[in-house]
Specification:
Elements: H1 3-40, H2 46-71, H3 79-95, H4 100-123, H5 129-148, H6 162-170, H7 178-195, H8 198-213, H9 216-227
Helix pairs in contact: 2-7, 2-8, 3-4, 3-5, 4-5, 7-8
């Protein structure tokens, strides 16, 4: 079979597998979109799609991090609370006079420490990841409410480094919202990490082994080996 024919067959097979997985979701989304378009008349407008896309960029970036956990065969329920804790820490440090870039660095480090705390329970104390992150979800959320006094932070233009904040958060390079650049950059980083590094290969192997160990066939094979 010619090489280009095999490639076409691979693409068609991949599309069929994708539709089998998310076909119902796409159909439901199209139905909801049709209803909203019929009732509002603006749902399928370019401005509305851009607003939805920009709103979802931060959620998508957090979801990329969750992908690494899922690939390894685990689950993290605390990722949203960790995101909130890190963001509030950055805001409070900045409001108290820290340089904005230093505050951002501390927020990133804090997020890493929160993940390491979850990993401690998982790898050393052998607590299920679902149970562990269910507890830390409430812990990190509680800490966020405590340090913020349940008050949202709105940056003032008089804060030092406000222009840096505006550039990395709300600017429009080349007329394009910078959130799109952040999303594209993180996507490329995660794709490279998962598909082009030893770290990503090891994550996939760990997740695959854990998935295979849960299959009854392994119990059967173990029993057969003992009988032999």
């Amino acid at each position: 079979m010619p090489r280009h024919r095999r490639r076409v067959d691979d693409v068609v097979r991949a599309i069929r597998e994708l539709l089998a997985r998310v076909g119902i979701l796409l159909a439901a989304s199209a139905a909801v979109g049709g209803i909203l378009q019929a009732t509002t008349g603006v749902f399928f407008s370019a401005g509305n799609f851009l607003s939805i896309f920009l709103f979802m960029t931060s959620v998508a970036i957090v979801g990329f991090g969750e992908t690494l956990v899922i690939v390894s065969g685990e689950f993290d329920l605390s990722v949203g609370s960790t995101y909130g804790l890190g963001s509030m820490t950055v805001a409070l440090l900045w409001a108290h006079g820290w340089p904005v870039l230093a505050a951002i660095a501390v927020g990133i480090i804090l997020g890493g420490l929160a993940g390491a705390f979850n990993a401690l329970f998982l790898t050393r104390l052998h607590v299920n990841s679902f149970i562990t992150t269910l507890g830390t979800l409430n812990l990190y959320q509680g800490i966020t409410l405590l340090i913020s006094n349940d008050v949202a932070f709105t940056p003032s233009t008089s804060l030092p480094g406000c222009r840096i904040y505006e550039f990395i958060g709300t600017s429009h390079p080349f007329g394009i919202p910078i959130q799109i650049f952040w999303l594209g950059g993180v996507f490329i980083l995660m794709w490279t990490l998962l598909h082009r590094t030893v770290f990503g290969f090891r994550l996939a192997v760990i997740g695959g082994i854990r998935g295979l160990q849960e299959r009854p066939i392994f119990q059967l094979n173990d029993t057969s080996s003992m009988c032999s």
